[in-house]
Amino acid sequence: MNAINKPTALETSDAARAAGEPPAGTAAPVDAQSALPGRLLVALAAVMWSTSGLFAKATMFEVWAPEDRGILLAFWRAAFAGVLLLPAVRRPRWDVKLIPLCLAFTLMNVTYLSAMSLTTAANSIWLQSTAPWWVLLVGVLVLGEPFPRSERLPLVIGGLGLAIILGFEVQGQARAGVLCGLVSGFAYASVVLCLRALRALDTVWIVAVAHLVTAVLIFPYVAYLNVWPTPMQLPVLAGFGLIQMALPYVCFARGLRSITSQEATVIGLLEPILLPVWVYLAWNEVPAPWTIVGGGLILTGLVLRYGIPLLRRRGV
């Protein structure tokens, strides 16, 4: 998130991924012969995004204080991802609307990885996955967009899932982590809304800039903490930036050349499903029962919102 974890994708991501928006500067004409490679690339991106918990929950980072771990992880992941993405940039172009995007992206990364450090991976990813409904609510209440009837049932189901997670977690010791996860979902939605105004820009350029600006904005606090990676931690952090962020964005952008953004969003649901599984297998972290129920309802709402219309469009 994850994750521009969640950009989902900046659209990742860590964002239009979550809201079904096409990424900047891409088109997705669906062709029968080219659709399969596109689907596989998007699925591969989702699987790589889902590894955020494997890195963030690694025991080697437990020497960092939980309250600082999220921002330290966010800095190193963003720095490595931004540098590694730069060679793939083809059409760099400045736009003043990159400023709010980068600010929202920074907030999303810091709060998501802080949530990962302060609560369970399942809580973190499912709370961030509420971003599409934040986008919908902001669009309806602030931008005056219509509220389609088809959106109402998914919103209610997803909202119920969110309420179940919050209702139990705010009574426990993970309140700060849950709050960070909730804010990361809203920040994710803000990234999506910013992307709507940046569709003419190259996707990789946007993602690279967002990561590099995130690293620059976070660095002063990292320097203040004066906590630096050990020789053992540094290659893992580089892998965090490469495998979990940089490569998935490239795969996702290329996959969207042959499939629609809505289909990519449905495939991208692999991320929140797989992420808690990897963390359980690697670090034996078991989600609470209410997280499983709430996450299941959020997933159901997302499937209703994106999957059913996609099937109807195909005449299924």
What does this structure look like?
The chain has 316 residues and is mainly α. It has one domain (16-313). 69% of the residues lie in helices and 0% in strands. The protein contains 14 helices and no strands. The chain has helices at residues 16-19, 32-49, 52-56, 66-85, 98-118, 121-128, 131-141, 152-169, 175-196, 203-225, 233-255, 261-267, 270-283, 289-313. α5 (98-118) crosses α10. It is globular and about 55 Å long. The model is unreliable at 1-29 (pLDDT under 50).
Essential attributes:
316 residues; mainly alpha; 14 helices; disordered N terminus
Q: Low-confidence parts lasting 5 or more residues at pLDDT below 50?
A: 1-29
Radius of gyration: 18 Å
Overall geometry comes to globular
Distance between the termini: 32 Å
Short description:
The protein is mainly α and 316 residues long. Helices cover 69% and strands 0% of the residues. It is globular and about 55 Å long.
Helix-strand layout with pairing:
Elements: H1 16-19, H2 32-49, H3 52-56, H4 66-85, H5 98-118, H6 121-128, H7 131-141, H8 152-169, H9 175-196, H10 203-225, H11 233-255, H12 261-267, H13 270-283, H14 289-313
